[in-house]
Write a structure and sequence with these properties.
This protein is an alpha+beta fold. It is 30% helix and 20% strand. The longest helix is centred in the last third of the chain and has 17 residues. Phosphorylates Ins(1,3,4,5,6)P5 at position 2 to form Ins(1,2,3,4,5,6)P6 (InsP6 or phytate).
Length: 335
């Protein structure tokens, strides 16, 4: 269902009722639910046929935070993005963000639509705030899935591109593969686990290992070659370097030092970002997204996970017999 709204150019804002008494350009458009994660809803912005699309809305999605106490405001998210991550990568390789105001009436309509939808059971009680707020316009990296349209999107989680500094020296699994194995022992399998590849292999010095890793994440020949090429490999090298430089000592070494905690939060954000690779016919572009700064409240959890992986033998493939499986995915298991 399309929720009709009005877009006001100055200041950038969305309204359910047509604003009056303004000389700013006004455009009719609509919002449709696209997807949601643990922290945000994402809506597609749709436009009537043959209607000029305002420049600010071109190739953009709308992301609105959920009404949950631990979710930071859009203003905070945007400030943190520019302060901590924007300068680490070429702008062309980043999902762009811009603030837009959403009035209460729009949020009420969207919440009504969310209540009527068949959504994942574990998110069914998540809704939008009821007061006016700011949201984010973000680069639209989706593709058209209509039959005959030659467009492909790969959404990849690069995860930990270097081994955890806390891992045992004789590890047979990297941090990502160790956590995958640990979750499998609890019969849990996430979308990242289903990628079926080792992050270390994506940047292996052995060409065959890189190719095998790429072939495990996409069937598209052109995207495979792109991921093996210098542009993509250079971007992954930047990401790996940033992860390592921000957390050179390991999660377990972080104490109460504010800067150390911040650096770890930045490193963990980079270890959980997404790489969007989109092919439109013969054109391919890649952008990093999901760069919302992690918060220090998670450090306790990260430390527990690290200790569990070490003490449980998940790094060394010496986990308890009832969980044990020969590691075959991780690059470290073949060394």
């Amino acid at each position: 269902m399309v929720i009709p709204v009005f877009y006001l150019e100055d200041p950038p804002s969305l309204h359910a009722i047509e604003p009056t008494g303004t000389a700013s350009p006004l455009t009719r458009c609509g919002l449709t639910y696209l997807n949601e994660g643990g922290a945000n809803f994402v809506f597609r912005i749709v436009h009537p046929p043959c209607t000029p699309i305002p420049h600010r809305l071109q190739n953009r999605l709308l992301r609105i935070r959920k009404d949950l106490p631990h979710i930071q405001s859009a203003e905070f998210q945007l400030e943190a993005f520019y302060q901590h991550f924007h300068g680490l990568f070429p702008e062309k390789h980043l999902v762009q963000h811009e603030l837009i105001a959403i009035d209460q009436s729009v949020l009420a309509l969207l919440n009504t639509e969310l209540q009527a939808m068949d959504r994942p059971s574990h998110r069914a009680q998540d809704f939008l705030p009821e007061e006016d707020l700011k949201a984010l316009l973000m680069t639209d990296m989706t593709v058209c899935t209509d039959e005959g349209v030659d467009e492909v999107l790969l959404q990849l989680k690069p995860k930990w591109l270097a081994q955890s500094p806390d891992a045992p020296g004789h590890a047979k699994r990297c941090r990502t593969c160790a956590l995958r194995a640990c979750r499998a022992g609890r019969n849990v399998r996430t979308a990242t686990d289903r990628q079926g590849s080792c992050p270390l292999a994506l940047m292996s010095e052995v060409a065959e290992e890189r190719r095998n890793a790429v072939e495990s994440v996409t069937d598209d020949p052109a995207i495979r070659e792109y991921l093996l090429g210098e542009v993509s490999q250079g971007l992954l090298r930047r990401l790996k370097h940033a992860q390592m430089s921000l957390d050179s000592g390991g999660v377990l070494s972080v104490g109460d030092d504010e800067q150390g905690s911040l650096n770890l939060c930045k490193a963990m954000t980079l270890r959980d970002c997404s790489l969007f690779v989109r092919r439109l016919k013969s054109t391919i572009e890649a952008k990093l997204g999901d760069l919302d700064l992690k918060q220090p409240e998670k450090i306790k959890k990260w430390k527990k996970v690290e200790r569990d992986l070490i003490d449980g033998g998940w790094y060394t493939n010496t986990e308890q017999k009832r969980f044990w499986m020969q590691e075959e995915v991780c690059q470290l298991s073949r060394q």
